[in-house]
Each structure stands twice: as C-alpha cells, then as structure tokens.
Amino acid sequence: MENQFDIAIIGAGSGGYIAAIRAGQLGLKVACIEANPYADPNGDPRPGGTCLNVGCIPSKALLASSEEYEKIVHHVAAHGISVNGVSMDVEKMVERKAGIVTKMTKGIEFLFRKNKVTFIKAHARFSAKTDAGFRIEVRGKRFDDVINAKNVIIATGSKARHLPGIPVDNVTICDNAGALDFTEVPKRLGVIGAGVIGLELGSVWRRLGADVTVLEAMADFLPGCDAAVSKELFKILGNQGLKFELGAKIGEVTTGNNSVQVTYTDREGQQRAFQCDKLVVAIGRVPNTENLNLGAIGLKVNARGFIDVDAHCKTALPNVYAIGDVVRGPMLAHKAEDEGVMVAEIIAGQAGHVNYGAIPSIIYTSPEVAWVGKTEQELKMEGVSYKAGQFPFTANGRALGNGDVQGFVKVLADTKTDRVLGVHIVSTYASEMIGEAVMAMEFVASSEDIGRISHAHPTLYEAIREAALAVDNRALNM
C-alpha cells in the first residue's frame, strides 16, 4: 500500500466520505480510513458512518414501511378502499432496510474507486507530527501499516449517549442501533428522550402496534423548535397514541424476564414506575474523539469532548481540520457533508464556505417537521423586530385531496427589510418542501420575493407562498 497522501481523512461517514470524493475530484491523493463496527459480509468495516448504517437511512426505511402499514390499516378506507387481513412481517421489513444500507455502502465504495480514493478499512491513530505532515498508524484485519499525510481531516462522528448505570445490550435495553433491529413488535415500548431519534423510533413501533411511552427530562417539548411547531406536533403525536411524560427524572432501571422496569420522578415530584418489553435510550450523542492519540500531534479536545475549530473547520494545528459531529453545531449529516466539501476545497486552494445560518433541520415523524433559520423565541431574545405569516394546510387543495391536512407553514421576516429570517413547516412532506425556504434564505430573499414567485397549482408548497403573503396580510386563500 502506498503511504504518502495529500489528505488523510479519518472516518468515512457523511462528512468523511464526501470530503474524500470532493478531494479526489480536485486531483488530490486521498486516503479515507474507517474502523466502525458495522461490518459487511466479509467482516470488514463499511463506509457511511452512523447515518448510513444505523441512523438516517435505515430509520427512514423503517419509517416508510411502518407508514405504509398504518395507511392501509387506518387511512385508505376514506378513499373507498377496503382491505382485510393486513399483517406486518417485521423480519422482512428489517431485511429490506438492511438491503438498502448494503446497496448504499457499496455505492460509496464504487465512488471511492471512481475518484481514486484509497479506502483503508482499519483503525487510525496519530503517531507523530513530522516536517512533511503527519504520521498515522492504521491497524485492522487487512492493514497494519503507517501512512503519511500533508493534511488531515478528522471526521470520526459520534456515538449514542448512554445513561450512567443503565447498560445497553441492544436486546432489551437499546440505543438507536438496537431499536432498528427488533425481530417483532414489542407490546410495550419505553423511550427515554423526546428528541429527534426518540420521536422517530417511537413512531415506527407505535404505527406497528406498540404501546409507546416517551420519558423526557426537559419540561418543554422540543424547546429548540419554534413554539408553534412544538405545540402542534405535541398535540398531533399525542392524538396518534404516543404517551409523553415531560420533566421526568429517571431513577432506577431494572431488567427482568423479557421486560424492563423504569422508575422516575414526574414533574410534580411524584415517584412513578412503568414496565415495558423494550427500552430505547435516545438522550443524544457524544463525539468520537477518544483513541485517536491526539496528544501525539499536540491537539486537544474541549471539556465536552469536541475539537474546537474556526468557521472553516480549521483546528489550532496547521493542516489539521475537523468536521461533522466532532465539532460545534448541529449533528446533522448534511452539515457534515457541507463541511467536508468546504475543507476539501480549501486544502485544494479554493474558497470553500458553509452558511451555517441556512442549514435545515428535519424530524421525520408523521407529519414531518422542517425548519431553517430563526424561531420566534430566538428573534424575541435577540431583540429583532420581525413580522410573521402563517398558512394552514386545511386551506390547501392538494392536502385536502391527499386526505392529510395536518400542519402549517410559518414565515418570519424582518420588519424593516422584509428579509426572510426563518421558515417552519409541519406537514407530511415538510422535508421535501424546506428546500425552497433554504434557497430563499441563501439568496437573501424577502417574503415578497417568495410571494411573487409562481407556484404550481395544486401543490403542497403553495402553502409556503401563502405564508409569505400572510406576512403582510396578503394571503389569497385564507
């Protein structure tokens, strides 16, 4: 194996593999190193990181399957469709999910070959800083070598945060990985954490028949979302059957014969307990920055385990960059991808850039939630004078035709300049509609700009135009 590279990228997740491909496109000699435990049939680590292997992609596959099932059981009758004897083969659903993951990981390896990226399936750790760059040890099933690189990108991602004293075996007590591989629908499912992961996984198994209880330490539901969005989604998910205990302080968790008992203190200070067949711990994620031997090159992590970087993902050490979940900002795959492209272009001598103010966020429940920019709470806290326009899907013809009128679009704009400051969507297809709002903010559009753009009729995204017009009390269909 050749051992001299322009760039060594540690981690082949969303940020790392995209950085490697872009650097290869730019003519740089690239090594991308991955040691995750998500093995292919040969027992070798696979590219794609958490997102592709046990995160974004497999969870969306299960969400799609469970949504199809719920539509048939509960919603198609309104369209005049009668169906009897519906059943769910959970093992086949999980097998389908696994097939999608395998196809996509193989696709990444093809792109590595296409762009002349050397993919090293091994664990990487820094050995030394040299005059020519950095020496990195790579140790794995098929590799036991040392490589040298002029530049290094640390893209090692994150792992699930676990509660102290509550062992995760991914059989009875699971994190996000274990919750994707149930072999049957649990009768009772407990979820600790009402964040994105907890809500999505809870939704999958609730649709298939599980009785789901979600415990959340925060007293408010989704406090990072716009307050109107949080209120709407809480109401809808509750009506669907998800049970919530907000302000819950977890006490003892004990396992019995195929069951788990969780004791907690509720927001009124009362001691409570409930039993479930499976428990999912979804309380956030922590950066993977240990075992890199960062001290060998004089690099440190901060108190929370993250690597400090500037606006262009440069660390305190020249020619060492860090991207994705190991640095500040939201732990989002597309944010990591954007940073990977930016850093590859900077190393190649170009002017890479990421607009952190225009990175969208999505929760893939049903309905979905998507937003970009500021919330009303943030604008009030910052003392920004703004105006708001909101439009419900109950007044949208396409939504009525689809038989799904849940949610709304809200547009926030600056009072003086009319510049769009934030857009928030609650809708079954929010993830597909938020792109227009991101584009508008990236090009500094005003709410009037959105309102004057022709929107095809009948479509769901007409609601974005109507909400933009509503900013100045000009909505046409409300």
UniProtKB/TrEMBL annotation:
Parts forming coiled coils: none
Enzyme class: oxidoreductase
Residue ranges of domain Pyridine nucleotide-disulphide oxidoreductase dimerisation in the record: 359-468
Catalytic activity: N(6)-[(R)-dihydrolipoyl]-L-lysyl-[protein] + NAD(+) = N(6)-[(R)-lipoyl]-L-lysyl-[protein] + NADH + H(+)
Sequence ranges assigned to domain FAD/NAD(P)-binding in this UniProt record: 5-340
Free-text cofactor note: Binds 1 FAD per subunit.
Cofactor: FAD
Enzyme Commission number(s) from the entry: 1.8.1.4
Annotated InterPro entries: Class-I_Pyr_Nuc-Dis_Oxidored, FAD/NAD-bd_sf, FAD/NAD-binding_dom, FAD/NAD-linked_Rdtase_dimer_sf, Lipoamide_DH, Pyr_nuc-diS_OxRdtase, Pyr_nucl-diS_OxRdtase_dimer, Pyr_OxRdtase_I_AS
GO molecular function: dihydrolipoyl dehydrogenase (NADH) activity
Origin: domain of life: Bacteria
PROSITE patterns documented for this protein: PYRIDINE_REDOX_1
Localization per Swiss-Prot or TrEMBL: Cytoplasm
Keywords: Cytoplasm, Disulfide bond, FAD, Flavoprotein, NAD, Oxidoreductase, Redox-active center
NCBIfam families, A to Z: lipoamide_DH
Family: Belongs to the class-I pyridine nucleotide-disulfide oxidoreductase family.
Note: The active site is a redox-active disulfide bond.
Name listed for the protein in its UniProt record: Dihydrolipoyl dehydrogenase
